């Protein structure tokens, strides 16, 4: 091999097998010591490294393969990872199945690994030397070290430290395989480029369930999905995982056919994210899995792989499975979510029991109104993102607890404990906790004590204290003794009416504070909490004001949602909150807001149901604002400026149920515009600039009579349009909106004609019920993907020409109640055999037929 940089672009090597063979040959070359795999996220570098590692072992090319996942923050855990790969006896995964002596020895080993890293290094080196000596007789060639996602994150000196524990020699050399994103000079570099279309199609065909081959036209759909992957292997893996999950499980409204077609035609204007990744996310079936997914995104943006037990425990601590009465139930639900995310390809197995995130999903933008900050209870992924905290440690779940893995007789070694309140004996809870003075993380769910127990106050190493749903707790004043706390949640303590003023004075390291559900009227001083990043006071229904926030310069999340008595801030401005990302005052009684000025990091402003709020401060100096929600702010009537166009990241504007009569200029980045029930809105302004709009809802804006646009053809990403219960007489042209899925025109009583709908080939729901002046039926032959058709109350409708329902094989619901076209029911009856998914048919005689009961073959 030439000593100068040798670079091979992977798109020139054909199939993935050819790629693998090429890299294996490089590693067999005596002149090559390091091979660097370079490419963007999702190009398949980690997958290829795993294949190389397994193949080298299987074919006897190396005598050992070690895998290190290098993150931005790392420590002696790298050595622990090596030790675990060499021998499971270094770190056992069992609880109490071994006898006391064996388990005690294990504890000693673990402790020495933490306290005596030099000793650990010697043990690692000795073990590898033993394997190397055996390899000399077996003819195996090299030791393979894989550094996954390494590059700019590891210093040369650190790599030399790792090399020092790894044996090397002419007969059994050390070979290093590195994956990284950024390209730089390397003796042997293999650059991963996007796959060819044929290569993408091959991966898809090999990954997807055979059931999809039974779908009519599957070849064309496969071809389109491969094209949308843009040659990104991760995108194919994730969408295949989502589709396979639907094929193998009951997934609500999804069928194999509808899911495959959605993937093939899906479009979204997300910069930096492959559309197939976004499509796979939209196939998530529940809010719970969404919340766990976004917590994982936040965590893995700053951390590498984590034991699956720890990830599930994070989800539990963040409240993703609340409410629950037993930890076992929450853990079981968390494990189900974990397996689903693995099946869907969003999470991946990195090592034995270690999981990580699919890197291609880490760039996704959280468009949920409240986002991660509004759904998390502690914000652990953010609070401990600096790498200084060593995490929950080795933990396991058993007997109503999640605790540090150790001999059951050695409770003094426990550093992490999550426990049900019912498992803490009322008479001896002090005694139970007395022996655990090494605790760093303590979470008690549904505690039964009325005051903070004395043994808890002795824990001088405690970093995280969580007391959730503690409705019997009457006093928490003594909590001030826990000066090492970084995360504190005492929530649901509705018996607590007041807090001492000096309560937080000594908690100078506190980063997350959650006092949701307390019946306090005011908070103690927060002036010493300079490190505080999350302040969560949800549903503190008696809280009417906050102390000054001027010292909270690191605050990122301020959540007072549901604090229904809250009326004011003491501070006249919030400009000092330079790191603030979300302000949620939803459901409060606030009438006047402080000035915001230039808050560079603020992305979410949520003022839902703020009934007394009639005016906003100037938002034009908020360059990163993404979401503004004023829905239900029933006295808000205007913006004091004419343009929001400088907010280039602005995505969601919700002014539903406000008194707004006109809109400011909105930036082109907007994806959702909600003007539901805006009783004073008479005209929908021009949307020409909103070319990324996906959702437009002006339903129940009863005075709306005019739409300025003559056509909506520029809204190519629009998938939801709702003009129900408005006074519009004419609609803009909707032709060729191929992404439109739902068109809702209920109770548009003045609407006489529909525009040309010929191009709406993806339409799934068409509801024109109550359009009593509409006299012409659209061409139904266009809507081959329609699932819901509601023509009820269209009393003036006339049937003309060749009307047929025969092409609507996916129709689930057909409503013809009080429909003027009296013979439509007869036409529908003739097409029943074709409508194989039909479940409900409402006819003009005003009764419903449950077709699943009468025609069991309809499904």
TrEMBL record:
Residues of the NB-ARC domain: 25-185
The organism's place on the tree of life at top rank: Eukaryota
Ranges where the record places region Disordered: 96-123
Basic and acidic residues bias: start-end ranges: 103-123
Gene Ontology MF term list: ADP binding
Pfam family, one: NB-ARC
Matches recorded under InterPro entries: Leu-rich_rpt, LRR_dom_sf, NB-ARC, P-loop_NTPase
Protein name: NB-ARC domain-containing protein
Provenance organism: Acer yangbiense
